[in-house]
Amino acid sequence: MRFLTALLFFVLSAGLQWVWIKIQRRIHMTQQQKWYGVNIDNDIKEKTPSMGGVIFLCLGVLALILNPSWEGLMFWSLPVLSGLIGFVDDWLKFRTHTSEGFRSMSKLKVQLLLCGVWVIAVWLSGRLGLWPGWEFGVWVSLPLTFLMTAGTINAVNITDGLDGLAGGSFLVSLGALLLLVPGGGVNSEAMTELFFMTAGFMFYNLRPAKTFMGDTGSHFLGGALAALCVINGRTLAIIPAGFIFIIEMLSSAIQIFTIRKLNRRVFLMAPLHHHYQKKGLDETAVTLRFWLVHAVGAVMLSLLVLSL
User: What pLDDT shows up at residue 96?
Assistant: First the structure.
């Protein structure tokens, strides 16, 4: 059964993505690059279909249909609804032919509302917890889980800036979660489905990318990563499993703080992967090194957490 699930999701992901790329090309569903961006290969990237994450949404709904349980609904609701927020952002960019879609504050408010409602639902179901055996009051667990859930969605979104970077890093995160989250039930099925739907997308996303996941995809994967940890009462597993995503988000936060408060830059450009591009490293080299750093950091932190 597990083999058939893996085969189904990989074939559907790769097949539907191939069809969707052709549709996007026909209607010119691409994304204008930010004028203040890294400005490398803009002529190529502006012609690349930019909403590959739509297939994630379709397959997320399919996964829920195949597992019509309360536990399945609790899990898949976060990535699917997060992906829909990203879809609105992508769609607005396409319709306005600009690099700016959903206003940043408006998008953040919707994200926080979704995460707040979802975390409360997890708490009411009795599944909320930072780590098994670590006793924290609800007034600590609830707000921390809320912040980490919303932060994870945005961290994956920030990391999605190079061909294959966010998708490949997400696959590494799933590997770390094999150590951190027990198998069985929705965990095992969801990890299988997520791995093979992402692998099918990555077939077209490695440099030179035939499609980008867009905010739809990055929000979906961020929601999935958070859900895998939170719904199993292991919210703190986000730290090792999301190692590179956290580094990327911190680099952006540091850059914004130092520019606004100290009137200086720490990095040539944030998030961190663009800093290394500005230093002259090839995009593929940056992506591979970030995957490696993520794998080493995630495994080491996972082993540290499990030894406590």
Answer: 84
pLDDT < 70 positions in the chain: 33-37, 39, 41, 184-186
Q: How far is CA 102 from the centre of its chain?
A: 18
Find, among 165, 187, 182, 199, the residue nearest to 292 by Cα: 165
Its domain, for residue 137, covers 2-307
Per-residue pLDDT at 36: 59
Q: How many CB atoms lie within 10 A of CB 183?
A: 9
Dump the DSSP string for the chain.
Answer: -HHHHHHHHHHHHHHHHHHHHHHHHHTT-B-PPPTTS--SSHHHHTTSB--TTHHHHHHHHHHHHHS-SHHHHHHHHHHHHHHHHHHHHHHHHHHHTSS--S-HHHHHHHHHHHHHHHHHHHHHTT---SSTT----HHHHHHHHHHHHHHHHHHHHHH--STTHHHHHHHHHHHHHHHHS--SHHHHHHHHHHHHHHHHHHHHHSSSPS---HHHHHHHHHHHHHHHHHTTT-GGGHHHHTHHHHHHHHHHHHHHHIIIIIS--SSSSSSHHHHHHHTT--HHHHHHHHHHHHHHHHHHHHHHHHH-
Q: What is the CA radius of gyration of the chain?
A: 19
| The pLDDT value given to residue 136 | 87
Cα–Cα dist 162/212, whole Å: 9
Q: How much is the pLDDT for 103?
A: 81
pLDDT at 35: 53
| Tally of domains within the chain | 1
- The answer to whether the predicted template modeling score (pTM) of the entire model surpasses 0.85 is yes
pLDDT in tens, 220-236: 999 999 999 999 999 99
Q: Look at residue 68 in the predicted model and tell me its pLDDT.
A: 86
